[in-house]
Design brief:
This protein is 44% helix and 12% strand. By secondary structure, it is an alpha/beta fold. It folds into 2 domains: 2-122, Rossmann fold, CATH 3.40.50; 128-196, Orthogonal Bundle (Helicase, Ruva Protein, domain 3), CATH 1.10.8. The two termini are 28 Å apart.
């Protein structure tokens, strides 16, 4: 567990400069180091919303490991097939990010067969240790003081997803600003309720 620095050019406001490395994404990230060994030097990266797919793709491309196409499912299939062919001709590893939910249904038969033979990498659901790291990262990006005691309270109660963490920390930040006070147990509890609903069971 930990955070890895990504050699990225400065992005927009609030953009991440690193990504939490954990059980959910360790295999896909490690695969980036051996892109030349991918089947046809092609990999398809998928995962839940806000799980760092675009950031990984950007890191892959800017580090010189190969070419990356973010949100490849929204690119014209003929154009995508041409780009796959150009990557093959130049022996350039190609990382395609599938941003949609569920299976990527490709209509173009030639492209479908190529992608079917590619290495498929998937970011999974974060475990407790990764959730704690994600809370710390999002809090740091917002300049929000959330220490280990906050993570110890929040992790067993929050939604097990990257997006869930992002929404929860945003709610804590908003309530802290509205009440003009540092985030405390009452704010953590109210943020959980605001994000996950009043019926969310509370642990003692």
């Amino acid at each position: 567990m930990g955070q890895i620095a990504l050699p990225l050019a400065p992005g927009g406001a609030g953009s991440a400069s690193r990504i939490v490395l954990g059980a959910a994404n360790r295999a896909p990230i490690e695969a980036m180091a051996v892109a030349a060994s991918w089947p046809f030097r092609t990999a398809v990266l998928s995962g839940p919303p806000r799980s760092g797919k675009s950031l990984i793709a950007r890191w892959f491309a800017e580090s010189g490991a190969g070419e990356a196409i973010d949100d490849a499912g929204n690119l014209d299939e003929t154009e995508l097939f041409h780009r796959w062919n150009r990557a093959q001709e130049s022996a350039t590893p190609l990382l395609l990010v599938h941003s949609g939910q569920g299976e990527w249904n490709v209509a173009l038969p030639d492209l479908a067969s190529r992608l079917g033979a590619a290495l498929h990498l998937e970011i999974g659901v974060p475990d407790d240790a990764m959730l704690a790291e994600l809370i710390a990262l999002h809090a740091e990006q917002r300049g929000l003081p959330l220490g280990p005691d906050a993570s110890a309270y929040l992790v067993p109660r929050l939604e097990r997803s990257h997006m869930g963490v992002e929404r929860l920390v945003a709610a804590i930040d908003r309530l802290s600003l509205e009440r003009k006070q540092a985030p405390t147990l009452s704010i953590w509890r109210d943020a959980l309720e605001a994000v996950q609903g009043p019926s969310e069971p509370r642990l003692l």
